[in-house]
Write a structure and sequence with these properties.
The chain is mainly alpha-helical. Helix content is about 80%, strand content about 0%.
Length: about 180
């Protein structure tokens, strides 16, 4: 639940940054370069760590309980490093703001209410996933968890490679490498 709360807080942070007009910073090539590199490397690191872990180390790691603040921070950091979160909220803000008249006195309030409703819905869905994983977790053994971690490690590794590819494309565009 604390990881889900960390995810919610990172979503709230990004949504409010977009709401208060700082989303134009996300379009700067320098920001996109740094953010895509850090995001790609972070996701690749998490993927390699999950995929390459040995079963004995996995068993040791599940015995160690994280503190509440550690879990909250992990959820926050993992989610805020995901470049799609940024694009999601910029897109959502654009989509929501189009449906309201900018001359309306309650324009900003209406958009904020919509964003908060979306955030709370996402948080409720995350809590549902926590409940479901706890329920299913009681029915599975450690070997299944181990292979699920390996699978998701591989998936994260591939996603990180995809993000790194896009970082390379941005570098080529930014420095006009091979351009005319």
């Amino acid at each position: 639940m604390r990881v889900a709360l960390g995810i919610f807080l990172s979503e709230l942070t990004i949504a409010l940054i977009c709401f208060f007009g700082l989303s134009h910073i996300f379009t700067f090539p320098e920001f996109q370069l740094v953010f895509s590199f850090v995001g790609a490397v972070s996701i690749i690191y998490i993927g390699v760590k999950g995929f390459s872990k040995k079963y004995e180390h996995f068993l040791e790691s599940i015995q160690v309980k994280s503190t509440g603040s550690e879990s909250l921070f992990k959820g926050f950091l993992m989610n805020i490093m995901n470049p799609f979160v940024l694009f999601l909220w910029v897109g959502l803000l654009a989509a929501v703001s189009v449906s309201y008249d900018q001359n309306d006195l309650h324009y900003k309030y209406s958009i904020l209410v919509n964003l908060l409703a979306i955030l709370l819905t996402l948080f409720a869905m995350d809590m549902g996933k926590v409940y479901l994983s706890d329920y299913l977790g009681k029915k599975m053994n450690n070997k299944v968890y181990f292979y699920v971690q390996k699978y998701f490690g591989l998936v994260l590794l591939l996603i990180g490679a995809y993000f790194f590819y896009h970082f390379c494309v941005l570098v080529i565009k930014y420095f006009n490498i091979g351009g005319h």
